[in-house]
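sry for the spam today, last one i promise. struct tokens for design, 447 residues
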């Protein structure tokens, strides 16, 4: 091949290469489309749609509002970004109970909700609660608890509720303003008779002696009836919890009489049967009431609002009872977060329920500096002297009895108990009439 021929071949090859590059190079502004395995053009995947769930929440309790707004809402976006939560604010007290009962009756439950034992048992009985035990085991959630009973299945092999394990540390206290006591030169009472005399003195000075939540009988329901029983004989409260006695027990009658006595001497505010949780708290924190009957879950809020606050172990009604030795504590297997058995997304509902329990624990560990059975890794430091004294007395008490209302009552008993306690707070309803009505309901409580 001569030189001219070789040059012609080289030129032709160069032209072919240039043509090939021109055919495969995109024109300005064009975009190559991805292809699938068949060679056909495909479109990019759209972002996955978020799973939507409904959460029914208490909305009149300051702690519940804090947990929902500052913990659940803030952290769910970080930890469950694939979930969109609709928040159903259900109010509180009987309003919340009625709303949850309406959901239960319809069978169209929210995906997740918070409730106490008596309402939870109603939902479980209707078959509307999801068994959370498989999710708790598979996720390792059960390994986060110091008290394993809180995440153990019931006798039917199922677990319907998850909780932070904070309730087991809550106990009802009689809180008081030290400066008000000093102003009127009165001393903290150690016996029930001293409590009555103190209330009479404070009433005569124009100040409300004791603030309680009277609406729907809340304070007597949750602790005061039992408190007055334990003030005379803690064993009777233990026997009630274990279904070994009934309300005709003389100690129970005496306890009801003590509450009636407090009403009659003016221990509570006028119109007490209409006073809800928020107004009862405000009455104390504003200094309108000298004392407050309330659980220790409000300790942090009380210290912040009223730095002069202290507590009194509930005064005894018997020389054989040391007030420092007796504790009534909150907490029940079905008090916490439940999920709907008919949820369209049961995996997500179960995950969100466990997430909420963790947020509860974080709130109590961080905000209240209170311990929980669910371990969050938060080291509780800077405990106030008041909180430390509360925990020390709690730990030292040798008689600890669970709340009858939280751990024992079914829905029927709880409803009738509230009705009778509301009547008792009028001061005109006798213990005998109370017992006559409540005993037949109590007889069916453990059926």
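last one done:
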């Amino acid at each position: 091949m001569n030189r001219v021929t070789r040059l012609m071949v080289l030129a032709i090859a160069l032209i072919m290469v240039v043509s090939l590059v021109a055919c495969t190079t995109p024109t300005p502004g064009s975009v190559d489309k991805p292809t699938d395995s068949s060679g056909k053009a495909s479109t990019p995947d759209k972002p996955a749609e978020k799973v939507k769930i409904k959460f029914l929440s208490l909305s009149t309790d300051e702690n519940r509002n804090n947990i929902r707004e500052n913990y659940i809402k803030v952290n769910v976006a970080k930890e469950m970004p694939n979930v969109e939560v609709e928040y159903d604010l259900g109010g509180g007290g009987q309003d919340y109970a009625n709303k949850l009962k309406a959901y239960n009756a319809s069978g169209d439950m929210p995906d997740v909700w918070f409730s106490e034992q008596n309402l939870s048992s109603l939902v479980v009985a209707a078959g509307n609660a999801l068994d959370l035990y498989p999710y708790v085991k598979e996720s390792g959630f059960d390994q986060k608890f110091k008290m394993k009973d809180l995440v153990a299945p019931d006798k039917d092999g199922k677990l319907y509720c998850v909780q932070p394990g904070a309730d087991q540390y809550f106990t009802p206290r009689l809180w008081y303003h030290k400066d008000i006591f000093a102003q009127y030169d009165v001393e903290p009472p150690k016996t029930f008779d001293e409590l009555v005399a103190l209330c009479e003195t404070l009433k005569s000075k124009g100040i409300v002696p004791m603030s309680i939540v009277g609406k729907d009988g809340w304070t007597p329901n949750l602790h005061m009836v039992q408190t007055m029983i334990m003030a005379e004989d803690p064993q009777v409260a233990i026997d009630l919890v274990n279904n070994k006695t009934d309300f005709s027990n003389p100690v129970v009658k005496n306890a009801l009489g003590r509450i009636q006595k407090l009403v009659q001497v003016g221990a509570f505010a006028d119109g007490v049967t209409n006073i809800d949780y928020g107004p009862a708290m405000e009455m104390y924190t504003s200094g309108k009431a000298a004392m407050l009957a309330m659980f220790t879950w409000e300790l942090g809020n009380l210290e912040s609002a009223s730095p002069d606050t202290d507590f009194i172990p509930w005064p005894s009604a018997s020389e054989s009872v040391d007030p420092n030795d007796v504790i009534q504590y909150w907490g029940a297997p079905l008090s916490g977060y439940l999920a709907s058995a008919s949820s369209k997304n049961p995996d997500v509902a179960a995950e969100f329920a466990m997430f909420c329990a963790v947020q509860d624990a974080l709130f109590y560990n961080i905000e209240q500096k209170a311990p929980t059975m669910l371990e969050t890794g938060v080291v509780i430091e800077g405990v106030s002297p008041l909180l430390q004294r509360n925990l020390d007395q709690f730990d030292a008490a040798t008689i600890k009895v669970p709340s009858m209302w939280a751990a024992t009552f079914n829905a029927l008993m709880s409803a009738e108990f509230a009705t009778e306690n509301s009547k008792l707070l009028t001061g005109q309803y006798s213990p005998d009439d109370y017992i006559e009505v409540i005993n037949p309901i109590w007889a069916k409580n453990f059926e």
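The first strand starts at residue 51 and ends at 57. ok im logging off now
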